[in-house]
Automatic annotation (TrEMBL), chain A:
Natural source organism: Candidatus Desulfolinea nitratireducens
Name this protein carries in UniProt: MBOAT family protein
GO cellular component, one term: plasma membrane
Similarity remark: Belongs to the membrane-bound acyltransferase family.
Subcellular location per the Swiss-Prot or TrEMBL entry: Cell membrane
Membrane disposition: Multi-pass membrane protein
Membrane spanning stretches: 6-22, 43-65, 77-95, 107-131, 151-169, 189-207, 312-330, 336-356, 368-389, 409-432, 444-468
Biological process (GO), any one: alginic acid biosynthetic process
Pfam family name, one: MBOAT
Assigned keywords, A-Z: Acyltransferase, Cell membrane, Membrane, Transferase, Transmembrane, Transmembrane helix
A GO MF term: acyltransferase activity
Signal peptide bounds: none
TrEMBL record, chain B:
InterPro entries: SGNH_hydro_sf (IPR036514)
Name this protein carries in UniProt: Uncharacterized protein
Source domain of life: Bacteria
Source organism of this protein record: Candidatus Desulfolinea nitratireducens
Amino acid sequence: MNFTSLTFLIFFLLVLTFYWFAREKNIQNSILLLTSYLFLGWYRWQFALLLGILTIADYVIILQMILWPEQRERKRWLVLGIGLNLGSLFLFKYFNFFSESIRTLFYLFGFQISTYTLDLLLPLGISFYTLKKISYLLDIFRKTVLPEKNFIQFALYAAFFPQVVAGPIESHRKFFSQIAQRRIWSKSYFVAAWPLLIMGFFKKIVIADNVKIIVDKIYLLGEPPKFLLLAGTLAFTLQILMDFSAYTDLARGFAYLLGLETSKNFNNPYLAISPTQFWDRWHITFSNWLRDYIFFPIRRSLVRKYRHRHKYLPLLLPPLITMLLSGLWHGAGRTYLFWGLFHGIIIIIYQALGLGGSWRPQGKVKMFFAWMVMFALIVFSWSIFRAPSLFWLYNAWFRTPWTATQYDFIAAWVSLSLILFYALFLIIKLLIDRYFPKSDWVQGFYFATVSVLIIIYINTGSSDFIYAQF
Amino acid sequence: MRKFKIFLTFSFFLFALSWVLIPVYYTLPYKKPPGPLLDDRLKKTYQDHLVETQPELVLLGDSTLLDSIDEPYLAELLDKDSYRIGKPGSASAIWYLLLKNNIITSPHKPSHLIIFFRGSMLTSPEYRTRGKYEPLVTELALSDDFLLQELAYTSQMGWLEEQADQFLPLFAYRQHLRTSIERLVKYKFFQKMMDVERIKIDQALDVVFGEPDIAQVNAIINAAEDYLYQPEKLDFYSQLPKSFLPEIVRLCHENNIQLTVVRTKSLTYASSEEAPKGLDAYISNLQEYLAENKIVFIDYAEDERLPVSLFNDSVHMSKNGAEIFTEIFAADYQDILANDENTHE
């Protein structure tokens, strides 16, 4: 039940009707919980069952953490909770990858061993709800948040259907504070929702699904010449932003219609001038999670340990480990790991050059140059992310010519023209938001035009969202 | 809310404009019947070829047929003239149309028709009929083909889609609009920028994207083929009345054409254990149905004489594979022809 399918829209209309007729917050929350499980079970009932089992287990663990005042006992329950969540993520997402990697490693040293692989399907949304629950367990342990004793509310936090497949990874503080009260319909929900929904449909149906055709064609080639690869990578740079931000826009729009505000996930990430800024603008809820639960704890512990010697370690290791884990989170594959490593390295280099944090160059020329460099790095990183293998990537970047024939040159330019055409609508939106933010006429006309394009480009079947596969 | 009202006003205006402009610009009718726009122009090249070469056997299939049967070699082995219609991107809707509007209407009718299929192709009437496949269907159909409209299109549409397809030109003629937009960017814009002829642009796209990496292509083919193996598609008896198969069988019987159905080998599933649960039941039900209707069925799906090394990708064979498969098929078909002759004697 894809967000852009008619089935989902009918499902959502039914949910809305029942939800707004309910007069009690508990009934509203129960409707949301029930429909969230129905939504997940629509794909496969096993997905809903797994989430249900893990949620019950986490709830029991949280109750035990409240029950035991001793730190040691609480820590045991925390370890169990994190182990359970990470263990299931590992089993379903990474077991085969590590199993095959171990076999390859042994093979490289001349040993042939047999390892087990499992024939398991990746449960939908597991990467997202695992992070949500881990952050909650950690905050309960740290006593930075009051535990939620209402099971329905706790279960809803993990399963809330607009977010369960591909985020945003909502902060529990923000979510619980909203569902703790009864929602009463207000016109403002609709006012906030409709532009998000139109932009979400537009980004996915018109831009992402069509740019995907160019990307797939180029990345299907055995050895694309560099110029063509560059065109394909620029297309993917546009596709991944459009696809993922479309999902977020739709998730936020649907949540608004349910009277719930969810966090922004993107803030013009390709306008970033440094890696730190990029991660402050790209997949913001995930970046915040990494910062709060991986980066800061590692840095704090390294600073404590190496206060007097090896002072460079607290500077080097936290970004590297955080970004490697970020790569691994995206997928069980060497390209994702390498993508994470690449981002870790550029963060370190920028910091070593004094260009981290809130650095801003003086003057427009320097600013433009800084943006160009960062944009080139982002584009290159997406080629790692999208490449079918590292070997393919190495060949494509380092062993093929810029253009082998005139045909390559033409194909690359045609691809670039199409990318430019699709990107144009976003550039126009950026300009409108900048120069006519309050003009209802200009904004209204833009939304009407993109609605027409949505109808023209609508298909009976839209491809899945990229991030739903993670 | 003011912004929303303005948006609605503009949308209404643009939609109203599209109601008038699109049918006028493309000279298309309003209201449109649901499904593709059919006319009475018919592509008859297949019939012309039949008349010209007078083959006894006609082989029907998609691009995999082109890569798995060597036509001259088969004719030589069987000592019979054959005509191979391997239409890339075709499936049961197109095979039905080819039979109905090209083969049985031909002054020369073949005595044998052999259809090569895989998965649930024979009972999935909507498979490969929309989007880029639609022109392939419309060029072979006549405007009064209600069965085609019903099975391949309207029965697959929801109420909302059916209404939009009839009354909303923006939706109904979206394929025309998309093509115009793409042409505008691909040819007009690019031609002006780079001064390259249109034909060269098409050639470049064909040449550059014509030879993709096989390992990756397999993944894409397998994903596309998944459609044929969904549980509801493998429910033979619920799919049969909704499919073109009974009509294909009827047309063959009425025209004294011996129909043979060949299930080709596909590597979509590495082994029968990995294949979807309902596939075996589907094939045995299909076999039962074909036997009841005196149709020959040959199954190569599990044939060990066709190893992986004979394939270029998960469904297309290599040149060597085509040679070997042609020999295997010719030997099997020779037995069928011999039986056929004995029965007639």
